[in-house]
Amino acid sequence: MDLEYFKEWVFKEFKIDLKAYKPNQLHRRILSLMSRVGVGTVEEYIELLKKDKDQRQKFLDFITINVSEFFRNPEIFNDLRNKIKTELLPKNKNLKIWSAACSIGAEPYSIAMILDEIAPTGRHSILATDIDNTILERAKRGCYADSEIKNVSNEQINKYFKKKEDFYEIDSKIKSMVTFKKQDLILDRYDTGFDLIVCRNVVIYFNADIKDKIYKKFSESLKKDGLLFVGATESIYNYKDFGFEKASTFIYRKI
């Protein structure tokens, strides 16, 4: 399989830099996709992606890892909730937050729900970004299956969701707290002045150099004492290199 040729084509076609991904994982993912659709060569797969919109979207979803749910790892989210309440809000009643690689929107909406519960009078700003336009459109609609809200309490479901036929739609007030925007974490510039950056279960797929660049840029985007919240498999071992200290197991504080 000519993986380098495929990477170059994907960059030209989608502006996604597959060179940033760990090669062994990437190779397995692409071979799995090719096997599912019954093609044997990269050239055949490229031709399929050129002419079949559905397969193009399946490829983008698979490569950009659009898997998410509300309050993923609830005990870790409880830790974040406490840090927002005890560390961030006492210093600033109006928080500026970034949910990077937000996928279907479950993560930024989870944060919006937390803020509505513990600081409802604040004028908070939540930016949610992702590389995939299609998934961003889904996030803006705010409609979710049972499996995606399994960690949401009944009280929160009654307060923040409307039950439609076979899905749940999130309340318009929570929707209005989040602004969605397309962004590539590898290629694009980052905004600054954030109190909190949330980026979970994405950086793990990138190689070490790209990881370090992203963490450095996150640090530069945070205010002093701002927090970075990462995924349950993404401990940053060299966090001091980026000007962080550990606030807890998966939360880092800019010093």
Task: Count the beta strands.
Answer: 10
Spatial shape: globular
Average pLDDT, all residues: 92
The N- to C-terminal Cα distance equals 46 Å
Q: How would you spell out the order of helices and strands?
A: HHHHHEHEHEHEEHEEHEEE
Radius of gyration: 19 Å
Number of H/I helices: 10
Strand neighbour order, sheet with most strands:
6-2-1-7-8-10-9
The major pleated sheet works out as: 7 strands, mixed
- Beta-strand percent range: 15-25%
Low-pLDDT parts are none
Report on the architecture of this protein:
There is one protein chain. Helix 3 crosses helix 4. The model has no long low-confidence stretch (mean pLDDT 92). Strands 6-2-1-7-8-10-9 form a seven-stranded mixed beta sheet. The chain starts with a helix and ends with a strand. It is α/β, with parallel strands linked by helices. Strand 1, helix 6 and strand 2 form a beta-alpha-beta unit. The protein is built from ten helices and ten strands.
How is the topology of this model organized?
Layout: H1 3-14, H2 23-37, H3 42-51, H4 53-63, H5 74-88, E1 96-99, H6 106-118, E2 125-130, H7 133-141, E3 143-144, H8 154-160, E4 161-163, E5 168-170, H9 172-176, E6 178-182, E7 194-198, H10 208-221, E8 222-229, E9 244-248, E10 251-254
Parallel strand pairs: 1-2, 1-7, 2-6, 7-8
Antiparallel strand pairs: 3-5, 4-5, 8-10, 9-10
